[in-house]
């Protein structure tokens, strides 16, 4: 019983601690601010479902292109076409790093992700954070897309 009470108290403490340190992210039109200070712009582009990340000097930092495909293995009552949506991301750094992530929701959620991953620091891409982000996320969706609906038969 003491263990349950102690665990509950610890969980409440950590939850409170997380909320007290959380940054307030706001998106007004295209300007993204953290705790009232503008940090970057996230602009919807003419390309359907795409966002371009700019610093405050209008220098292009990255583009998030939405991609969709259907996968018969993902069909559920809530997703009858098996539709998968992801962002194909290109960072405009020296190596033009690329990776893919699941579509995270609205513009504000994408801005929060960029901030939480520390991808932009002092108006520039953080090379270490970008490399780590791309290494973690990789190109899983385009690989899965190539194999969706494909049956591979191996004969011995």
What's the number of helices? 4
State the low-pLDDT regions, or none. 5-20
Report the strand count.
9
Average of the residue pLDDT scores: 84
Elements, N to C (H/E): HEEEEEEEHEEHH
Shape: globular
Q: Mind describing the biggest β-sheet? A: 7 strands, antiparallel
- Beta content: 25-35%
State the strand order across the main sheet. Answer: 1-2-3-4-5-6-7
What is the CA–CA distance across the termini?
58 Å
Summarize the entry for a quick read.
The chain has 156 residues and is of the alpha+beta class. It contains 4 helices and 9 strands.
Task: Describe this structure as you would to a colleague.
The termini are far apart. A hairpin with a 5-residue loop joins strand 3 (37-44) and strand 4. This protein has helices at residues 2-21, 107-116, 127-137, 140-147; strands at residues 25-28, 31-34, 37-44, 50-54, 60-70, 83-91, 98-102, 120-121, 124-125. A seven-stranded antiparallel β-sheet has the order 1-2-3-4-5-6-7, with helices on both faces. Strands 8-9 form a two-stranded antiparallel sheet. The protein is globular. The chain has 156 residues and is α+β, with helices and mostly antiparallel strands. The chain contains four helices and nine strands; from the N terminus they run αβββββββαββαα.
């Amino acid at each position: 019983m003491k263990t349950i009470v102690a665990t509950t108290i610890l969980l409440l403490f950590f939850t409170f601690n997380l909320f007290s340190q959380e940054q307030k992210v706001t998106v007004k039109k295209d300007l993204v601010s953290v705790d009232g200070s503008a940090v970057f712009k996230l602009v919807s582009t003419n390309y359907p479902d795409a966002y371009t990340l700019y610093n405050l000097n209008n220098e292009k930092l990255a583009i998030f292109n939405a991609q969709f495909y259907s996968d018969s293995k993902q069909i559920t009552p809530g997703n009858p076409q098996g539709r998968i949506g992801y962002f194909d991301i290109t960072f405009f750094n020296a190596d033009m790093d690329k990776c893919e992530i699941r579509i995270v929701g609205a513009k504000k959620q994408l801005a929060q992700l960029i901030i939480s991953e520390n991808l932009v620091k002092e108006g520039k891409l953080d090379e270490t954070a970008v490399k780590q982000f791309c290494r973690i996320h990789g190109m899983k969706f385009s690989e899965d897309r190539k194999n969706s609906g494909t049956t591979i038969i191996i004969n011995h």
